[in-house]
Amino acid sequence: MSAAPIRVGIGGWDYDPWRGTFYPLGLPKAKQLEYGASRLSAIEINATYYKLQKPELFAGWAKASPDGFKFTVKGSRFCSNRRVLADGGEALERFCGQGFTELGDKLGPILWQFMATKKFDPEDFRAFLALLPREQSGVSLRHAVEVRHESFRDPGFVAMARAAGVAIVFGDSDDYPCLADLSGDFAYARLQCAREEEPAGYSPDALGRWAEIARAWSAGESPEELPYIAERAPTEPRETYIFMINGAKVRAPAAALALMERL
User: What pTM, to 2 d.p., does this model score?
Assistant: First the structure.
């Protein structure tokens, strides 16, 4: 069975401490995306979490990145940070209609991140998943959910995500539950334990381990050493996204590049 592509990247591209540590000194800010996209294979767009963006911005970002590059789009907080998720239909329509389809074939999954205080309410969460559109303007959409409350450590949540074809984000974190159950047709991981004293954010051994895990996900396997709350998913190749997020953020690009070297 052949493996699916593995894409490695960072969250956003405008962070001042990356100037001189990742971006060459003197590189204009307007060129940062072009430079970052030439070195990495994916970037999370964070700005969409806070407010809607214009179609021409998405078109410009697509133009600044090479063929084969992918952007993942962070879902609006006005959809995910609600007491009743099922009431977010209008907000979802506005979010999905803002023009991110201008990214064309560089559009990756949409990431829905929930606050750490958001508990698992099966009826409400099922209603939220049902609201997620499968296409926009003729472009297929895929979705991933990052949950951060212990109540989601429930086999019913995994079954729900699998029924909806939505990926559960594996968030490697000391603060939130780590759920490795595969549920969509792609895998999505956000690694959040980088350390500033490590030049590449992670030790060589840790990077080697994450490379092996990425290969396993790409081949459709569920690595034995990760935590699961339900039966393992069927083995089928899954496009795999790995993002270096938070932790020692200044090391995120170096960590992503070091992981790409091992892959």
Answer: 0.96
